Amino acid sequence: MATSLQTSSRVLPLHLSPQAAPTTVPGVFRVAARLLAANGLYQGDFVPDFADREMDVPHHLRPMSIVAALRTATTGDPHRTSLLSDHAIAELAVRLEVDGEGPLFGGIFDLEAHVDAWGDVESRTTESAVAVLERAAETGVAA
Asked: Any alpha helices (H) in the chain, and if so which ranges?
């Protein structure tokens, strides 16, 4: 007897596969690094053309900010949050410095803004963001 998952003809995208969903903060960092490496770093809020006025590409396939990549890693959507993505954002924020300073406040929106500010530095590249996420996953030290 087959289960409904085995008889389903629908194929899930990798980022939505239950086997691909990270369950730890280092796992979130690894998946987010892969997303950025594949899609590119977007310096701005979440994804380009968030209101879909000019693009038909699904949001999870567009270039994205680091915060959006961390969210997508856990929820499959750069706009949806989860406790695990919030924890990863917080862990990354306290390790990153912008103009020699860490985050000013400890609320999630402040921590997201700090990570975004780090990613929005003019000289920031996709490769440097991926390297920071990979280092955070491996050693727990982001920058």
From this structure: 4-7, 25-39, 66-75, 83-93, 108-119, 126-139
Q: Is 105:90 a contact under the CB 8 Å cutoff? A: no
Beta-carbon count within 10 A of 85 CB = 26
How distant is the alpha carbon of residue 113 from its chain centre?
14
In 3-118 the beta strands, taken as DSSP E runs, fall at: none
Query: Cα separation of 100 and 19, whole Å?
Result: 39
Please name which of 130, 139, 133, 94 lies closest in space to residue 112, comparing C-alpha atoms. Answer: 94
Percentage above 70 pLDDT, the chain = 82
With H, G, I as helix, E, B as strand and everything else as coil, classify residue 12. Answer: coil
What's the pTM value of the predicted model, to 2 decimals?
0.80
Closest CA to 78 of 91, 92, 65, 90: 65
Q: Are 99 and 114 a contacting pair, CB within 8 Å?
A: no
Do residues 26 and 136 touch, judged by C-beta distance below 8 A? yes
